[in-house]
Amino acid sequence: MVAKLAIRDAGKRYGDLDALKGCSFDVADKTIVSIVGPSGCGKTTLLWSMSGLHGLTSGQVDLDGQKITGPRPEIGLVFQEANLLPWRNLMGNILFPFEVKGQKPDMPWIDHLMDRVGLTGFEKRMPRELSGGMQQRGSIVRALSLRPQVLLMDEPFGALDAFTREEMNRLVEEIWLETRTTIVFITHSIEEAIFLSDRVIVLSKRPGRVMADYTVGLPRPRSLEVMASREVFDLMNQIKADIYGMSSMRSKAAE
Amino acid sequence: MTDAIPEFKKAEVTQVGLTGSALASGLGATTRREIAIILAVAVIVIGGLEAVLWWYAVPQYILPRPSLIAAALVKEFPLILPHLGYTMVSLLSGFAIGAGTGMILAAVVTQYPFVEKVITPYILVLVTTPMLALVPLLILRFGFGYTPRIIAVALAVGPMVMINAATGFRRTDSAKIALARSYGASTLQIFWKIRAPMALPMILVGLMIGAIFGLLTTVGAEMVGGGFGLGNRLTTYSSMIDMPEFFAVILLLSVIGILIYVIFFLIGKKWASWET
Question: What is the ipTM of this complex?
Answer without folding.
Answer: 0.86
